[in-house]
Design brief:
This protein is α+β, with helices and mostly antiparallel strands and 498 residues long. The chain is 35% helix and 23% strand. The protein has 17 helices and 23 strands.
Length: 498
């Protein structure tokens, strides 16, 4: 039996999962690490925490699985995207904490790009909307703030998203590489040429010498350093977490859609070999690149998904564990008119409002803890519904027959039923909820030759439970009307000039 291992480096934890070649989970281990908030709206990670927890999770998961290390055929890396690191080529030392995808510090850079007329160029070339979410402005901030342009131009520094950082530190020979899915999230990569773009680099004054080589999503980039697990093992795939999840859900046909409920919620719809330009505030992005051939997707991002539940637990103390939110939400028949808009770091697609902030509306003297908890869970589903409807409008087709779901929060039965209700289509949950990791493992299997094709790998993906919509059309329309009224009240709350 050949074994595949996925390294799933996420926003709040590092996880490793061991799979057999039939896609069954043999062992999993995750380690949370600290989030740093040096200023309001700023989010950072300690690079040593990212690397240390990922190596420890890998070693413990393999030990727990009791597999013979000699049977591990390949390792795949999947990662939180857009999070930006910059390190010295000679020493490997990072010059600053990692700037996390959620961080809003570079909003002034985005405003400057828009004033200079780059908005349409960015959209046409990268498929992205100008936003502080992406890596390019984060890298520009590091180079400017730390006065590192000269060192970068000399080739003394390496920029990377988390996949690059892990590859550099875990693979023999320290390759400076990134895969096409992660490159496509930088605002520096041309989707049409599949290359770093000189005009995009020039707009942010970023030297080409600092950038990694772009490789396919399933491709052997080298061997794991033998001291980590006792022998060299091929590292045969790298993919941004949402692209790995799309693959792990076997969404191989145009029009198939999945939604991942993690720290954020990320919905992707396969659009095939041709990129679809969104008219509804969505992103055009890579799905994956295999054998040099790109597949594209539409994407919408909800910044605060599972992180909203963490906020209920850690800041508001309304729940003790994420799991109990389901029972508390079900203890009331509805939210009694309460809507919670979790725009704590602004709103993503289809609004793209950096200056929205979290809002609770509709409260009365009778509003209780359960109403707010339920409103928070419903908000995650409302945001996802906005994305789903925008995707359907962009493709100009009928709605997909169902939506695939995964991620930790998809275990919440209340939330998945409400999601089906508010979408009006069935929601299908797979046996393996961690399809991000499964996708990375399957891609590694393709890269290492365990599977001959993605269709062979797809046989390892198995559905578990389907949630069918039960809400009447009128009730759905009224609920969405209330949600959109609440969203409007959250928008533009921060006034940047005051």
């Amino acid at each position: 039996m050949r074994i595949l291992v996925a390294l799933d480096q996420g926003t709040t934890s590092s996880r490793a999962i061991v799979f057999d070649e039939a896609g069954r989970t043999l062992a999993s281990h995750a380690i949370e690490f600290k989030q740093h908030y040096p200023q309001p709206g700023w989010v950072e990670h300690d690079p040593d925490d990212i690397l240390g927890t990922q190596v420890e999770a890998l070693q413990k998961a393999v030990k727990m699985s009791k597999v013979d290390v000699r049977d591990i055929a390949a390792i795949g890396i999947t990662n939180q995207r857009e999070t930006t690191l910059l390190w010295e080529k000679d020493t490997g030392r990072c010059v600053h904490n990692a700037i996390v995808w959620q961080c809003r510090r570079t909003a002034p850079y985005v405003e400057k790009l828009l004033r200079e007329g780059y908005g349409e160029t960015i959209r046409k070339k990268t498929g992205l909307v100008p936003d502080a979410y992406f890596s390019g402005t984060k890298l520009a901030w590091l180079l400017d703030t730390l006065n590192l342009h000269e060192r970068a131009e000399k080739g003394e520094l390496c920029f990377g998203t988390v996949d690059s950082f892990l590859a550099w530190n875990l693979v023999e020979g320290r390759p400076h590489v990134t895969d096409a899915t992660n490159a496509g999230r930088t605002m520096l990569f041309n989707l049409h040429t599949q290359q770093w773009d000189d005009e995009l680099l020039g707009m942010l004054n970023i030297p080409r010498a600092v950038l990694p080589q772009v490789v396919d999503t399933a491709q052997v980039i080298g061997n794991l350093r033998p001291e980590i697990l006792g022998r060299p093992i091929p590292v045969a795939a790298m993919a941004g977490d949402q692209h790995a999840s799309l693959f792990g859900q076997a969404c191989f046909e145009p029009g198939m859609v999945k939604n991942t409920y993690g720290t954020g919620c990320f919905m992707l719809m396969n659009t095939g070999e041709v990129p679809v330009e969104s008219q509804n505030g969505l992103l055009t992005t890579m799905a994956w690149r295999l054998d040099g051939k790109p597949t594209f997707a539409l994407e919408g991002s909800v910044f605060m998904g599972g992180a909203t539940v963490q906020w209920l637990r850690d800041e508001m103390k309304l729940i003790k564990t994420a799991a109990e939110s389901e029972q508390i939400a079900e203890s009331v028949p509805d939210t009694a008119g309460v809507f919670l808009v979790p725009a704590f770091t602004g709103l993503g697609a289809p609004y793209w409002d950096m200056y929205s902030r979290g809002t609770i509306v509709g409260m009365t003297r009778g509003t209780g803890r359960a109403h707010i908890v339920r409103a928070a869970l419903e908000a995650i589903c409302y945001q996802s519904c906005d994305l789903f409807r925008a995707m359907v409008a962009d493709r100009g087709h009928h709605a997909p027959k169902h939506m695939n779901v995964d991620g930790g929060a998809s275990a919440n039965g209340f939330m998945m039923q409400f999601q089906a209700d508010i979408l009006g289509v069935p929601v299908i949950r797979p046996v393996v909820l961690e399809t991000t990791a499964l996708g990375a493992a399957l891609l590694a299997g393709i890269g290492a030759g365990v599977y001959a094709s993605k269709e062979e790998a797809a046989a390892m993906v198995r559905p578990d439970l389907t949630f069918h919509p039960r809400m009447a059309d009128r009730d759905r329309d009224l609920a969405l009307y209330g949600w959109h009224r609440a969203v409007e009240r959250s928008r533009g709350w921060v006034e940047p000039d005051k």
